[in-house]
Amino acid sequence: MTKFSPLIVGVCGSAREGSFNHVVLNHALAHAESLGARVTKIEMKGDTFPNFCEDLEDRDGRPTALNDIRRLCVEADGYIMASPEYNGGPTGILKNFIDWVSRSSNEVPGTPFRHKPVGLLSASTGRLGGIKGLQCLRMVLGHLGMHISGKEFAFAGARENTADGKVTNEFMASEVEAVAERLVELSQ
Ligand SMILES: Cc1cc2nc3c(=O)[nH]c(=O)nc-3n(C[C@H](O)[C@H](O)[C@H](O)COP(=O)(O)O)c2cc1C
Predict the structure, then answer these.
(1) Where along the chain do its domains lie?
(2) Label partner for 3 (CA 20 to 30 A): which of 47, 54, 86, 102?
(3) What is the mean pLDDT of the chain?
(4) Measured in angstroms, how far is the CA atom of residue 88 from the centroid of ligand 1?
């Protein structure tokens, strides 16, 4: 279905071993790949992403590994982001990623976020799937000038609807795939 093979970058707001958001994001990325997209995922390692602070940036500059990540984001045609909801918002890990990558860079010029489409997912062990976190995330991404896909999904009851790192609920799997499909379309 693709005219060219867009580069879709997956970003997860959880660094937890066994994260449900990783399971859901992996499902979406695999579906995007099956539709002809190129996909890659950014891992939120603490040593790559120290807590953003302007003093740190002034003193040491951007951590070297972050240059490669910014380059990938500049090259991205679109994003799929999946985040847990922590206390009604997206996680600090995800916001920290956005803050680091949004900083302009002489070494890696270009636009990582503005005018790029993004498909949103959240997964939660709770019954609302983290939908409040998505509302909050939309505000931040809208501020950055991203094009937020109208198709998003809050994956509720993540413990019951996944097993062994896979989505097991057929309906929910198809909703996650629909997010990926719309995003691939928007990334053309
Ligand atoms: C600090 C903290 C706050 C949380 N707040 C919420 C919340 O507001 N809404 C919700 O649905 N789940 C909340 N949870 C539960 C998470 O949805 C659950 O831990 C989920 O598995 C995290 O995603 P992960 O598996 O991808 O790491 C919270 C968990 C933590 C650790």
Answers:
(1) 7-186
(2) 102
(3) 95
(4) 9
